[in-house]
Each structure stands twice: as structure tokens, then as C-alpha cells.
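Listing S7. Sequence submitted for prediction.
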Amino acid sequence: TRFSDGVDFYTFTDSATQEQRDRAAERLFRAAFLGIFRHGALNADPHPGNYLFEDDTVVLLDWGCVRAYPKGFIDTWKRMARTILADDFDAFAEVFPETGMVGSDRFDMHAQWEQMQYLYEPFTIPGFRYDAEYVARSYAFVNPRDNPNLRHVAMPPEWVWTQRLHWGLNSVLAKLQARGDWIAWYREILDSPWEPIRVE
């Protein structure tokens, strides 16, 4: 650790150019997903209070909510992700039960596919820009009228942590109005070699 003289998130967003915001967003994005897909470690507490901005560097604070994942879990996640990037529903329906999230025989795989299409929009739609509207659409996931799987999904503890990452990081990137080459970055990171780190 080291002392940082950086400014807080809102001071940064109030004064930064869009180019500076986009560079910061890329760093946050890479840190989050390289941590998962390359190192098998997830920081599940991405929110504005956990960042400082110093020159052209993003300083990450508070590593108290970190979980390490085994290679098998990450391999399943990668296989699932690749079916979505390939727009291959049949392959998705085959691999998704391996996540442990199918909670009953009434589980609607097509509804789950639609949710995953939403989550992976940044990685499949060229020129995607994070904004408040994108984040707001996630609220349908917890609305029984919009989510037929709400009472039929199982949620293993490992995946609870990933939900915190998705919603938190998406909200931060939306506050930055971030744009970038998410498609290329995500695919690059997804193909990263496995180099696990030890989290104690």
C-alpha cells in the first residue's frame, strides 16, 4: 500500500474531460475483469467511495470484500460468456445449468438468455456507452412481472458476489458516461492465461 494524494470520484467527474473519464473507465474495467478471468479474484465492492484519481492513475481502495475463485468456476463462466458473445442460444442453454443457477424445472432458459443479452450489451454492441438508462433497465431483474425466473433461480454464493461486481461497476461506469472498445477488451481479457493469485 502507499499514500495517495488523489482526488475523490465526484471531484474527478466534475473536472475531468470525457477523454480522461474514458481512460479511467478502461482502467477500472480492466482491473475488474483481469482480476476475475486471469487471476481468479474478484473485488466485489466497486463504488465511487473506493477510488481516488491521481494524475492519469486510478487508485483502488478498500480490499476488504475480495473472493478467490477456483479455475473450474472461472472456466464455466468463460464458456458461458463465449456462448453469449457468439449469440448461440443452444450452446448457452447447454452450459448454463453448470453454473448451479437453475433452481427448478420451471426455470425459463429463454428469459435468462434475454437477461444475459442485456448484461453483455457492452461486449456485443459496437460503440456502446454506459449511462443511467442502461443501469435502470437492470431493475427489471428483481420485478416478478418482468422476471419469470425470480422464484425459480438458485443463487450459489459464488455468483452472489459476481452480481455485486456487475451492478456496482456498471453504475460507476455509467456515472463516468464511459465509452470504449469494450468488445475488444472483454474478449482479450477472456482469453487471458490463468495466473491465479492467493487471497488471504
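Caption to Listing S7: primary sequence and predicted C-alpha cells for the chain studied. The two ends are 16 Å apart (CA to CA). The beta strands are 7-8, 41-43, 51-54, 57-60, 66-68.
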